[in-house]
Specification:
The protein is an all-alpha fold and 316 residues long. The protein has one domain (13-315): Farnesyl Diphosphate Synthase (Orthogonal Bundle), CATH 1.10.600. It contains 12 helices and no strands. It has helices spanning 13-21, 27-42, 48-75, 89-92, 97-122, 124-139, 153-178, 193-216, 218-224, 229-259, 273-285, 289-315. The chain is globular.
Length: 316
């Protein structure tokens, strides 16, 4: 649903809250867990409980970040009637601002609750990572120095929804198998070079969801004084960023195959390459919401498909 569509007074409160969570961004929460589980299975350290908790925690942090963005962009005047993106429930009046803020707080609190189990499994490192993820999710749009308004949103997504999410998912499973509970340091075998490399495709495509979003909103963000990285770089270099992150995603499976770390099945993500090429053509040639709103959703679908194929390649 886009901001240009007329809102109906009959819209249910449940529907409004569903819009607020931005379900089109949920692949960014699930994809790193899928890859982390595939990697853990291939390494012989798969553990169901920590894997499920990592998925729930990631989804809650994603939703909390979305609610924070919705609320703070509205109260700070970043959102406007000219915005071409998906409906923002605070700005459109579908949900009162204070309720959106309360939902954000409760969602992050639920993430902390889930995180207590992961801290028991993974110890102090998970406590540090979990708190940093929640603080950064809030600071993306809120606080005295909102990351998304100072050109740091892309870096935030790359690090927290890519590198840390994949490596953290692998870590809690490996820690459950290889280490005692409540570890104070990083146990041996729980953070590997392979996990770090495997996180890069997910980091790249997850960041591209934000790149598409920010290319679409470049003009309205500039007028509102929001300095997203797209505003700082402009259309040309934002598209270079998008293309470079896609190239990074497909380079990693190729590297794993070339080094012999995995067999030919690790190249399964290349089945998604034609879809990625069609998506890139849209991003490289269009700036309007009519084209980039579907492109944003398709980037999420590319992320989900790539993650499943990548994980399957590791397991096979």
């Amino acid at each position: 649903m886009t901001a240009t569509e007329a809102e109906t007074p009959e819209m249910s409160r449940a529907r409004a809250w569903l819009i607020a969570t931005r379900p089109q961004t949920m692949p960014a929460a699930a994809a790193p867990v899928i890859v982390g589980v595939g990697l853990a299975y291939s390494a012989g350290v798969f553990s169901l409980g920590p894997a499920v908790a990592a998925l729930v925690g990631a989804a809650l942090i994603q939703i909390g970040t979305n609610l924070a963005n919705d609320y703070y962009d509205a109260v700070k005047g970043v959102d406007s009637e000219e915005r071409q993106g998906f409906t923002r429930v605070t700005n459109s009046g579908l949900i009162p601002a204070e309720q959106v803020k309360r939902g954000m707080i409760l969602t992050f609190a639920a993430a902390i609750l889930v995180g207590t189990y992961l801290v028991y499994v993974g110890g102090l490192p998970i406590l540090v990572i979990g708190l940093a993820s929640i603080v950064s999710g809030y600071a993306y749009a809120g606080g005295p120095f909102p990351l998304g308004s100072h050109g740091l949103g892309d870096l935030f997504v790359f690090v927290f929804f890519g590198v840390i999410a994949v490596v953290g998912t692998f870590y809690v499973q490996a820690a459950a198998v290889l280490a005692d509970p409540l570890a104070m340091t990083i146990p041996e075998g729980t953070v590997t070079t392979t996990a770090l490399l495997a996180s890069l495709p997910i980091a790249g495509i997850s960041t591209n969801i934000l790149v598409v979003n920010n290319i679409r909103d470049l003009e309205t963000d500039r007028e509102a004084g929001k300095l997203s990285l797209a505003v700082l770089l402009g259309y040309r270099w934002s598209r270079v960023e998008f293309t470079g992150l896609l190239a990074l995603a497909y380079a990693v499976p190729l590297y794993f195959f070339a080094t012999g770390e995995f067999g030919g099945a690790i190249l399964l993500p290349f089945l998604s390459l034609p879809y990625a090429a069609l998506l890139a053509r849209t991003v490289l040639t269009r700036t309007d919401g009519d084209a980039l709103n579907p492109a944003l959703e398709r980037t999420g679908k590319l992320l989900a498909g790539f993650a499943v194929l990548f994980a399957l390649g590791m397991v096979i």
